[in-house]
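Support case: user asked for a sample of complex input and structure output to validate their parser. Sending the pair below.
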Amino acid sequence: MKTVEVIKGQGPVGRRGLGRKIERLRVAAYCRVSTDSEDQLSSYKSQVQHYTELIKSTNEWVFSGIYADEAITGTQTKNREDFQRLINDCMNGEIDLVVTKSISRFARNTLDTLRYVRMLKEKNVAVFFEEENINTLTMDGELLLVILSSVAQQEVENISANVKKGLRMKMQRGEIVGFQGCLGYDYHPEDKSLTVNEDEAQIVRYIFQRYNEGAGCTIIGNELKTLGYTTKHGHIEWPASTVINIIKNEKYKGDLLLGKTFTVDPISKRRLVNFGEEDKFYIKGHHDPIVSEEVFAKAQEILAKRGYPRRLNPDGKREKYSRKYAFSSLLQCGFCDTTLSRRSWHAGARHKKLIWQCTLATKKGKKYCPESKGIEEGIVEEAFLEAYKLLCGNDKSIVDDFLALAEETLTEANVEKIISRTERDLVAAENKKSKLIDLRLEGTIDDDAFSSKLFDLDNNIDTLKSTLNDLSVTKNQQDDLRSRILGFKAILESNQVLEKFDRYVFESIVEKVVIGGYEEGGTPDPGLITFVFKTGYKQKLHKNNYGIVRRQFDQDGNAILPSSSSQTESFSASSYASANTYRDGGIDVENQRIKGKKNLVL
Amino acid sequence: MFISETMEANTILRYSLQLAMLSKLLSNELINRFEYEKIRSKLMEKYNVISEISIQSIPHYGVKSTMVDTHSEVKENENS
């Protein structure tokens, strides 16, 4: 048997890896408190003071600084700036020992504790936990550290569970939890109540009105930007998501839903939308509504229609719902039931035509819907006028009823009051202007401020003068109201009720229009136009009866398009209202604001 | 169920007709835009209409279908 000679170990022979002997350890302390309450702040100050004195008074130690995070939780390290700085300094070899009060101050997360301790250990940096009396460089194995850091983590999990229970009880009592206010409402934290902010509420009402009229969220967002409104947080941009969240928010009808989101666990703090994983609490009539329940329900109906998931459709296709043009989503192919889309034939040429054509045939191929044919927009409009004429009887009572309402409304508009108010505003604005000029002459304000203020005032004065002008015209007309009403009656009783295509009228009465179909013998006829009215009636017409008139051209040789194609007018109730807003509902978005505009009815 | 959803066929027609009359007054320049908007909102209020597209259809039972073929009438006239 061979002999084995044992070479005895002599214990530590110097610090490995550094190649130098350290006489005095460079020591830093780490302190943390998780909330900014009075008690915790005094604890934080005590920690800082204690460790500064401790390190400075120990001869073997050199003070390397105090790293402290105030009012920051220990469950995650990413927000703890000083902790990150401490680790960086340690990794750079600037610190030999980190002293901290306890494991829970270092980290409330077992994984983080072990990760950082191991990382520092590799660089020969010790961490000393005072309460537990553990030095990570001299400890025997990690068992104790793992157990104690798990206890620290458990503690925070228990706290979280208690907080959650408390919040749940608050929700059950109907108290608002985790709400910071939303557009249209002011939140009062002292009594946790919501009050309507009338200025913002106007914007909310506008959003709901436009959405119910068929405008999409992007369009509404663009309009609000043009009108110069800012979001609750003061941003000028109105992304579609902001608008859609307003549409979805039940607070606007006076109700309150609590528990919309939940936290998965206190360590990752991941928040998810509550799809039923946890309880929700719904309180009806919690505060004053901004929009009525009916308006809100209609908006939800449109939202559901537009957002209907593709996977739920039997053919796997997405049902697109658009109200860009008067006929969008309302024209249906009589052969394949697909909607028709608007196309421009000979675009840019003299013979430009606006056509509505089967989407299946245009997108997939003519062979998928061989019988369908494009139909001119003007023909559908003309056919509607005809169908409408046939639908409406000759009921005189409707005219009388309408005239009574018109007279009542026109009398209500108290122009005199508005005129005197506008005159007062005008005088005030002119006084302001003369004061501003005095200030400039005295040299109290500088050139830039003077010019900008003068520009604003001049604009205001111009607007007031033009409003005054309009109002005096209206006043003169009002004086002659009786004779005006008689004039209305004469016009309404003569000729047909609708002479020109009107989008509002079309939308009010037509459910859909089927283009093309089969004759009684089963022969396909792409020229059939079937109007399905909301009143439950159908009206079949044929396209050959319309659009026989030769195309008209203007002086420059451009084709004159149907009335519904007007893109230049800011207001038109025809099928294409305006280039900017698609259907501006009579609102000149470019020039008007909702608030303070007397001639805008919302 | 809202009132606008349960609007009778007659009510829908009355609303639509009055809207058409209003449109006619505007196109004949007998009223201005301000007055148009004011009367329209009054009409909507009266008939409890939130927006035109939101007026619900009456279920299509007992549908009266009319085929108006003026084209064939024109042809007949030409032949005679």
